[in-house]
Every structure is written in structure tokens, then in C-alpha cells.
Amino acid sequence: MAKAPSSAVVLGASIAGLLAARVLRQHFDRVTLVERDTLPDEPAVRKGVPQGAHAHGLLAGGYRILDAYFPDMMDELEALGAPRGDVAGDFLWFQYGRWKLRHDAGLPGMVVSRPSLETAIRRRVTALPNVDLLHAEAKQPKFDPATGSVVGLVVERHGFPAAEEIRADLVVDASGRGSQSPKWLEQWGYGRPQEAAVSVDVGYATRVFRRRPGELYGSFGAIIASTPPAGKRMGGLMGVEGDRWIVTLGGSAGDHPPTDEEGWNRFAASLPVSALYDIVTSACPLTGIQQFRFPANRRRLYERMRRFPGGYLVLGDALCSFNPIYGQGMTVAASEAQALDDVLASGREGLARRFYARTRRIVDIPWTIATAEDLRFPEIEGKRPPGTALVNRYLERVHAVASCDPLVCRKFFEVVNLLAPPSDLFSPKLIWRILRPLADQGGNSPLQAHRLGLDRAQIP
Hey, which bits of 38-80 come out as E strands? Predict the structure, then answer.
């Protein structure tokens, strides 16, 4: 008897779901992406991804994974006007009262709008011969209590009178922060996963401007952050395709930017350096001001569940969502998809156990980075481990030395771009560089010229 074709279903066609479908198509005969939104043919902000209008960061770790899965995509996006370059040499960082050293760190990256990136990925994934995109509402996975496995997904297709079931050997929940997986698991008798949360009450507001050649010292963007715990404000400029600046102002612990032009500009002026304010008060605005709120970092600890149904996995924001100020979400989703690829290559036996063991290690680092930074603010509640104050002082020193020492600066960017663990910043070869007198290492001037082989007389 011929073996039945294998199939997988993915809930949600956002970036996490698209990447999951990309790797599943190598391990299953048929993959179905289920998405309730009507997806636009061209890049556009859609209802299911309201944060798409705001500045997004694709860290170097995520860039590498996407470039491997979609070899021609970065060239296409660059041809459309999305700048590509070095994350330390072509992007500016002002943190803890200093500019990071601008130099070629060997870490390639790209600045692109979220809608354009998602559209480019979606076109490639849905063009794959064994991937289908279904416009439907996912109602609930079909669970078989006799086998203890999920065996399909019940959906309601738009324009069809009755619900239907899609059979599947694996169902992947990539439906985002609003995931119903905890409720479904409880209904099936597995209990709910433990959760960890750090409330941050982040608000940000974004406006798009016309970008002119040579602005912002010839860079393709900048992050400008106040110094915690007193300073809760930040700003991001992303020089995206279409000769545009996406400018996002944000604040933690309830210190949110206004949405009227005068108040928004005053918020920009309150940042510790004027680079962002100079852009928004001289460039031509192309849009109004749009607002977004993010309540809390939230992590669902599926790896701690004693039992888990077969044929079912959760990834992306449905697994863990981070304070968006740190730009980690897309890169973590890409890393989780890569982990799914790896564990499926070893077969489906014990798939959930092996997958969650991998994702725990993936999520631990960005979760530690995001929550540790958020917990610097006394208004934010959460457990602060013993020695936190000492570690914070050391990391403040890392920020200072990264303004003038290329080795420390590169390692800092490897960590924040999820290419190295934070423990690397405590290696013996770095500790002495970080703790030696700062005066011995030079200064931090807006006239640095450290980009290798280039005259950068006006680089901050």
C-alpha cells in the first residue's frame, strides 16, 4: 500500500509562520499556511501586524539565516533601495552617553521596512511548489485523545458556510502574542505552560520622512537612547527603501511620546543628542504619527511541561515576545525556524522535547538581554538576581569602552546581534581591556574616522 503523503499546517503567515513553512516544506510533502488576513500583493501595513508601520531591526544573526534560506532576497531588497552594510560601520549607536565606535566590524546587516521584508519572504515561500496559502480563520487544532496527538486543524474559510478540517501530521502555532495554545493544551488535559512576564509599559510613535543623500553622516540609521534608570526615552531612525526615514520615538515605564506634531518633536528634542531631532525638523514628512503600545515581555515555558501532545509545536511570538525596543523578534523567529529544520532532520520521534530544548537555549539570551535592561528601571517590577548592580556597572563600562576599542565594540555587537552569548563579554581577554583606565584608550568624538580604508572626517 502506498504511503499517504505527509502534511504540515502553520497557523499565521507573519514572518515566523512564513519561515516555519519554508523549513517544513523540506520535510513534508505538503505545507498549508493558514492566515485570516487578506494579504496585500504589495508591501503594506496589515491589520494582523499593526506594529508593521514602525521601525524594525533585523539583527546580523537574523540576516545570516534569511540570506541562507533566500539567497537572492537581500540583493532584490537592496535593488529596491533598502540599504545594506555593516551594523557598526554603517549604522550609528548612541547609548549610555557615548557613540559606539564606528568601524567595520564584519557584521553584515540591512535596514528594510517590515512590510517589504515580509512581502519578499511571502512571495518566495508561497511560490514553493508544495506550499499553499489558505485565507481562513483557524478555529482549533484537531486533537486525537486516543493517540495523544494533534492530527489536523479546523478552519472556517471566508465565503464558505461550514467549518472544515485540514489533516496534518504536524501543526505549528505561529499566531503571535494572542496564541490560544495555552487554552487548547488545558482543554486537552495537558495543563497550561508556566509563564514568565516582565511588564514594561512601552509606547512608541512613528512618522515617516523623505530621506536625502548624505544625511545622518552618510549612515543608514541610528539608535539614540537615554541612560537608564533616569532616562526612559529612545529614538530610532531607519533609512529604508523608497528614500525614506522611518523614525520611531519610544519610552518605557509609561513615558510615552505624544502623537501631536509639536509634542512629538519636543520628545525628539529631549533625547541626549540632536541627530534625530535635526532630521525630523528639517526633512519633509510623508505621513502622520502612528502609535503602538507594548505591555510586557512574555515567555511561555513549554519546555517545562511534563507532557506535550504529538504533532504540535509553538514558535515565534506565540512562544516568547520581547520588548520591541531591542529589535530581537524577527531574528529569534528565524533562529527558531532554523532549529525546527535541524530537529526535523533527525526525525519526528520526540520532536517537541527536542525542539523546546533547542528553543530554550535560543530564547534564553535575548530574554536575558531584554529583561535585564528593562529591570534597570525601578518602576518595572521583576526579580533582580543577586549581583545585578555589580553586573550593571560592568556593562556600563562595556558601553563606555565600546566607544573607542574595536575589539570590545565588535564583541558587544556580536552579543546584541545574537551571534555570541553575553558570557563572552566576561572573557579574560576582554575584562582587562574593559577595566583598564578609559583615558588610555582614546576618546569618543563626533569627528572619529575609523571606518577601514575610508575617509570619515565627519563620522560620529
Answer: none
